[in-house]
Amino acid sequence: MQLSLTQPCRWMSLLLLISSLLPWEHVISTPDDQMFNEELYNKLISISHRTHIVARKMYKNLDVKLSKGRWFKNSGNNTCRTASIPTTKKTEVLLKVVINVSNAWKYPLKLLTPAVLTHLGSYDGMLARAIEVKYGCEAILEGAKVLLSRVQPGFEENNYPDWPELKQLRSSNKDTHLSAFHTLFYCLYKDIQKVNRYLKILRRRVIKN
C-alpha cells in the first residue's frame, strides 16, 4: 500500500523518529571546526562507511525485488552524472571530489526520501535507509568543507548535475519510477563508495605526516 504525501504530520513524525536513531548521533557532538584533522577524518570515514553499507543495501534489495519482474532488464549500463575520477591525487583535489560528489546528492536526496515514502512505502526499511543516507551525505559534505578550508580557502562547489531520473520519480507509471529508483540507488552507493575510498587515502597521509 502506498502512502500519501498529503499526511504532513505523519511524515514529519517519521523523519524526527528515524533521525533521532541515527547510528552516528554520538559522533557529531563536537563541531567539525574544533576537531584536529585526523579526528575529523576518522569521523567522516566512520560515517561514509556506514552510509555506503546502507546505500548498497538499498540498491541490492531493490535490484533483487525488480529482477523478479519480467519487465525489468538490468543492463548494467547505469549512467551516473557525478564527478569523474581525478587525474591527480593531491589532497585538495581529492577533497574537492568528496565535496562535489556529496553536494551533487544534496538536492536529489531531498526528493528521494519522500519519493521512497510514496512509491515504496515500508518495503524492507527503505524509508529509514533513505533518511540515514541523506543525513550521512550532509555530514560528510560539511566535514569535508572544513578540511578543505584548512588547505585551500575560498573553494566554490559545483552546481547540481541534472538528474532526469528525479522527474521520473514523480511518474505514476510503476515501470518508470522503479527504473529511476534503480539508477539513483546504484549511483548513490557507488558515489559514497568513492567518497569513502578517498577519505581513507587522505587519512593515511595525515597519519604518515
From TrEMBL:
Keywords, alphabetical: Metal-binding, Secreted, Signal, Zinc
Residues that, per the record, bind Zn(2+)? H49
Q: Where in the cell is it found?
A: Secreted
Q: Which family does it belong to?
A: Belongs to the somatotropin/prolactin family.
One Pfam family, please name it: Hormone_1
Report which gene this protein is encoded by: LOC107399387
Signal sequence segment: 1-29
GO annotations under biological process?
A: female pregnancy; mammary gland development; positive regulation of cell population proliferation; positive regulation of lactation; positive regulation of receptor signaling pathway via JAK-STAT; response to nutrient levels
Q: What is this protein called?
A: Prolactin family 3, subfamily c, member 1
Alphabetically, the GO molecular function entries are: hormone activity; metal ion binding; prolactin receptor binding
Q: What Gene Ontology cellular component terms go with this record?
A: extracellular space
